[in-house]
Design a protein that fits this description.
Blueprint (H helix, E strand, L loop, with lengths): L41 H8 L8 H18 L4 E7 L6 E7 L9 E6 L6 E2 L5 H10 L26 H4 L13 H15 L2 E3 L3 E3 L5 E3 L17 E3 L6 H8 L22 E5 L6 E5 L5 E5 L6 E7 L7 H4 L1
Parallel strand pairs: 1-12
Antiparallel strand pairs: 1-2, 2-3, 3-4, 5-8, 6-7, 9-10, 10-11, 11-12
Length: about 325
């Protein structure tokens, strides 16, 4: 639940402050998961992250399973994944994604969203200019839950202006469509993904075709090492110099350091690792994006992550640590 250079995501846009060394624009990305809130494994995954307050009621669980089952059949995905839930003032957004077959390095991830009707639709595809405009608006309030609502400020007199066709002006280029809440949702989902998307180190490898694939030799982290932040990485195109060098090697399939480690994230201390008293579950919580929680069951290949929140970043975190 949680990448072919040059890779272009189907959903583009992220905050320039998303990473300590680079922005998502430097390396277009798409993220994926393995055994992570997959449709058939949804209930077990939700049980694992329930300690963080990420829960779905029976109606939501049934609606998501039905909606994603229909989406999987319509789009002919082998697997479909639940990403999380963005809370709104009037209505909530449920976010999911499907994976396309990889052509080089990382497979493409396509996002979908739904409202209370659980009818999943593709997220708007933002270009760099549109994403930058969303960020420039500086909208930091909670989502309302109305996808087609404009988020741009209303210019005085604009609401009374006649449509371009009524003015009779020929040759005038049409005005660009106003940005909507769905556009903002598209941008913020990718930003959260870029800053989080944690997986155990060694869960993926590069094969001979230079594609990122699940590692068949990964049997899970031990009970002790599963509690170490150094044993988890970001599943996205690397931005650190060390990881980029490792990924660029012709024999990269023999190297496991092609992903950015979570312990290098800034500010230091932005991740909290907790172990269940039974030692059968380890969770990682993002303090930068309250609401994101990842989990791993030691000595198994079960891991995943989900986001439940208002899509608001804790920008005061450096002053709180």
């Amino acid at each position: 639940f949680w990448l072919k250079p040059p890779f272009r995501s189907n959903v583009v846009g992220a905050n320039k402050q998303s990473h300590s060394t680079s922005s998502p624009w430097a390396t277009p990305l798409v993220l994926l998961g393995h055994i992570q809130m997959e449709l058939y494994d949804l209930e077990q995954g939700m049980n694992a992250v329930g300690t963080g307050g990420s829960v779905l009621n029976v109606q939501e669980l049934t609606g998501i399973q039905a909606g994603l089952g229909l989406l999987k059949a319509q789009e002919k995905y082998k697997t479909i994944y639940f990403w999380g839930k963005i809370l709104g003032l009037q209505s909530d957004y449920y976010v999911a994604y499907g994976l396309k077959d990889p052509e080089f390095e990382f497979p493409a991830k396509v996002f979908y969203f739904a409202g209370d009707d659980f009818d999943f639709k593709p997220m708007p595809k933002l270009n760099q200019e549109q994403a930058a405009k969303v960020l420039a608006l500086g909208v930091d309030k909670p989502f309302l839950g109305v996808a087609d609502r404009s988020i741009e400020p209303v210019v005085e007199g604009e609401e009374d202006a006649p449509p371009p066709d009524a003015e009779g002006e020929e040759g005038t280029p049409p005005k660009p469509a106003k940005l909507t809440e769905a556009d903002r949702l598209s941008q913020v989902v990718l930003e959260i993904d870029f800053n989080t998307c944690a997986v155990p180190k060694g869960a993926y490898r590069l094969n001979e075709e230079h594609n990122i694939v699940p590692s068949t030799s990964f049997k899970g982290l031990g009970a002790t090492e599963a509690t170490s932040l150094s044993k988890y990485v970001h599943f996205r195109p690397p931005v650190s110099i060390a990881a980029l060098r490792a990924l660029a090697r012709t024999d990269a399939e023999f190297y496991a350091n092609f992903s950015d480690p979570l312990e290098d994230d800034l500010p230091k201390g932005c991740w909290a690792v907790r172990q269940d008293p039974s030692a059968n579950l380890v969770t990682l919580r993002s303090l930068a994006w309250p609401g994101y929680i990842a989990y791993h069951i030691p000595n198994t290949n079960k891991f995943g992550g989900v986001y439940f929140g208002y899509a608001q970043k804790c920008r005061d975190l450096p002053f709180m640590l």
